[in-house]
UniProtKB/TrEMBL annotation:
InterPro entries: DUF6114. The chain crosses the membrane at residues 21-39, 51-71, 78-94, 100-118. Keywords: Membrane, Transmembrane, Transmembrane helix. Coiled coil: none annotated. The keyword Membrane applies. This is Integral membrane protein.
Amino acid sequence: MLMSSRTGFRSAFRRWRADRPFWGGVLLALGGAEVLLTMKASVKVMLHAGMQGLAGYLLPTLMVLLGLLILFNPAQRLFYSITGVLVALGTWLTSNLGGFFVGLLLGVVGSCLAFGWLPDQEPRVRRRLRRDGGVAATEV
């Protein structure tokens, strides 16, 4: 009984994950979380203090929020991903060089993945099979 509920959850999660730009949203949210964590670094570790106050915490918080919005509202992914890449680039000035470049890069890559995700496109193997008349092209 435990095994069937476990496989049911896994298949339901896979279906949910396939219907949205999952990795793009996750990477954008992780980038924002990493930038937020580096804001708490000691003064000896910080490379660039940036604008103290609201902007240093607002931009990474927006990155986390946009990553979650991409996951739970994929219909608006274009707006969220464009806003996400702009906010991630803005953290370079406001938050320790974008979380020592790690959060900045995670945010930009996640936003690009979400922007490039095509929900109605079938997988390449099926397109290749249909184009070649049912025989997969194995030669390059």
